[in-house]
Amino acid sequence: MTNKRTATVALAMCMSLIGCAKPEGDSSTETASPAAPSTEDVGETVVIESADQLTPVQRQQHETALAAKDALMTKLSGRLVEAIQKDGPAAAIDVCKSEAPAIAENVKREFKVDIGRTSFKLRSSMNPSPDWATEFVETRADTPQLVSLSDDALGVFLPIRLQKKCLLCHGPVDQLAEDVKSALKLQYPNDQATGFHEDDLRGWFWVEVPHPPKQ
Ligand code: HEC
């Protein structure tokens, strides 16, 4: 598979793009400022290169992000499996469309975060990526990304890989069931999210965790 290589190239591109995003003339101050040696400035946001560099508070925020992501994933896939088993994949598309936003709303409230899913090939236009993650989408980052946002919020961007069970609705068009194809055409006339294979990068969960209130 060329997957890994593409991903490495994408990651390298990502790094260089972030580098290029620095204002001109910044390089002279860069070596003279040891304050943040391993972070890269991207507008208002700062990319954190490794989870090892998180402060204790950011570590808590990171844990909240992962827990919220797990909850969203479990709830979405539980509902999806249930709907597929009951009425088949074509009907499950309607369920997905009507219930996915409400499921995300519940997770937002429960964990006090902002959360969603996005992709470089979107099915639903209701799933755009947050601004701070645009570069990661463009470069198809296939490893988790951490970003310090304004007001000390933490942004977490987590890759989603395609599993076999996802092929029913995201696989190559010529392998989709006829009723799935027509349900997609009806519900998502601008659908781009087909043509995937098992283990492909499908998209990402993104989570924004606010700075915890001071006790
Ligand atoms: C029954 C059909 C169906 C199956 C099976 C399915 N999806 Fe989807 N998927 C959808 C629909 C419909 C949407 C758009 C609605 C929404 O926001 O969830 C969607 C949206 C998404 C999105 C959000 C980005 C976008 O394109 O809008 C991701 C990421 C995603 N699916 C990944 C997966 C993964 C991973 C699996 C397997 C674990 C999977 N899907 C299985 C129908 C399906």
UniProtKB/TrEMBL annotation:
Record's signal peptide: 1-21
Keywords assigned by UniProt, alphabetized: Signal
Domain of life: Bacteria
Domain Tll0287-like: 73-210
Keyword Cytoplasm part of the UniProt annotation: no
Region span, Disordered: 23-42
Bias (Low complexity): 28-40
Pfam families linked: Tll0287-like
Keyword Nucleus: no
InterPro entries the UniProt entry points to: Tll0287-like_dom
PROSITE patterns: PROKAR_LIPOPROTEIN
This protein's name: Tll0287-like domain-containing protein
Native source species: Fuerstiella marisgermanici
